[in-house]
Amino acid sequence: MGDDEIKQRIGSVVDLVRDLAVEGEERHNRQMEEIRREVKHLTEQILRVDRQSERTERTLRRAIHLAVQEARAERRRRQESDDRLDSAITKLAAAQLETEQKWREWIDSMKRGPNGHPS
């Protein structure tokens, strides 16, 4: 094997190594581009989920606030209703006592007779 043949083989090896290096670099660049696209896509998804989470949290907070307001209003309505019922029962009890008193007086008047004398 002569010097020219050795140089030719070395040149072929150098060309092969250069081609492999170029191919490796191109493959690396494609992979990195794919990774960048995936990272961008994932970042967009994360941001979208964050926005949805914020909306959900605002909605939940509003719902809780409204539920608390409604519970307080219901408690007030029930208290007012209880107060009205208590007042009505008190009036009814007073009327019942008055009716009983008048009933007793009427019965007593019947026992005395028409001129106030016992019959």
Distance between the termini: 163 Å
Q: Could you spell the SSE succession in H and E letters?
A: H
Shape: rod-shaped
The counted number of beta strands is 0
Beta content:
under 5%
Radius of gyration: 50 Å
Poorly predicted runs are none
Count every helix, treating DSSP H or I runs of 4 or more residues as helices. Answer: 1
Q: Helix coverage percent of residues? A: over 70%
For this structure, the quaternary state is single chain
Largest sheet: none
Mean model confidence by pLDDT:
92
Going by helix content, strand content and strand pairing, the class is mainly alpha
Question: Could you explain the architecture of this structure?
Answer:
With 119 residues, the chain is mainly α. It has one helix spanning 3-112. The longest helix is centred in the middle third of the chain and has 110 residues, at 3-112.
